Amino acid sequence: MSLSSALSTAQSIFNNSGTQSSVVSKNIANAQNPDYVRRSAMVVTGGNGAMIGDIVRSQNSPLLRQTIESSSVASGQRTLLNGLESIKNLMGGNNNEFSPAKLITAFRNNLDAFASKANDTGLGMAVISSAQDLASGLNTAANELQQIRKDADEQIKQNVDDLNALLAKLEAVNNQVKNATASGADANDALDEREGLVKKISEIVGVTSYIRENNDLVLYTSDGVTLFESVPRKVTFQPTAGFDAATTGSGVYIDGVALKAGESANTTAKGSIQALLQLRDEIAPTFQSQLDEIARGLITAFAETGPDGTLTPLTGLFTYKDSAGVQQTAVPAAGVTVPGLASRILVNPIVVPPTGTPDKLRDGGINGVAYVVNTGGSSYGDLLDKYNENLEGPMAFDPDTEIADAPDLLSFASDSMGWLEQLRSTATSADETKTAMLTRSLEAYSSNTGVSLDEELSLLLDIEQSYKAGTKLMATVDEMMQALLDIAS
What we know:
Elements: H1 3-29, E1 39-46, E2 49-57, H2 61-90, H3 100-116, H4 121-183, H5 188-204, E3 207-212, E4 216-221, E5 226-229, E6 231-232, E7 235-237, E8 252-254, E9 257-258, H6 272-301, E10 318-321, E11 327-328, H7 341-344, E12 345-347, H8 359-363, H9 382-392, H10 409-449, H11 453-488
Antiparallel strand pairs: 1-2, 3-4, 4-5, 5-6, 7-8, 8-9, 10-11, 10-12
């Protein structure tokens, strides 16, 4: 080997070692960055010896697609489960002590006691108090359920704003990738940033991605609607100022196409927006209709029909106000939900002390003397027994409640909680499965593209040895050059 070739070899070693150590150092510095993909300095050989040919990312497209898909479905499921947990908390948590079924049971126990001792005013007042608790519980549950819908609507607005912001960033980063690829510059940092943005987008809405010429990225929603192609597509949403049982929220539109809501407890939602739409427009309204039907059932069960049951039914113990706040006496039609009735049901003031008396419940006559039933004295509880039987009597319910096959009001109230618990249980199991899938996908992707400190430190030792070899070679060349100079002198 000539001195010039030896010197060239040493120089190549130093150049390669410097580049490799820079790459390894960057890998180590980003070991905890989930959006960083490991780099490798590729050494190639040619006429001028070994040299660094390119800095290559350890990308794995199939695993990346799986990770993005898992992120979408896990985000949708978790969002839905959180909403169901919020609805369950309205019922008092695990014991459901504020649920209509529990409140009706407590009310009925007091009604039984009053019927067996109808001359006891204290027991009558206990019935009225428990009836007020029942009506208040329905009011609170219905109002807070609408607040959950309002909160979901606000979260949708925030998600849409975040999505538009991410898409704007994606445009800028995607342009960086295209320009760097076209010019032969290093596009790795921009590629990392772009993948990180796509992961965040996938948590909001399900996406599929395609790479075109010059590393140009195209994004579509899971339903095939174009989300990003050179420029972001417009994502629009009009929030609703306030919600009641009759309110229908606005849809989310991507490039003019409405985004579908998720379906079922093991939701089909991909991303948080679809799950929020499902919660706001399907699950909460269905539960609201169940509360409204429970309220209608109570009003019907305690309606007054006169001594022989032939008078026009009018509201008795339980009555309600219309949307304008005016108290009504007409009993709602059977089998048809009155939207928002649960938020407007109340105990008739005529039976509430101190201005009213529970005797009107025992004897009838809340709607005047024509509706008085009991004329046998304060010890007779026949009318109370009749009301009690009505709670278990046949009753028709609106099919939109999804539990309309319940035979009576007590069963319907129980089935309502069963319906909610079934949804929550299924959603919990699905969340565990989808979270586990996401975890495995992230682990697999990280093991293929992430940074292992052990491997990087081992590689640093190899680079160090290569550098030492270069210094020894340079020292040898220096000695030989010095010897030649000594001879020449």
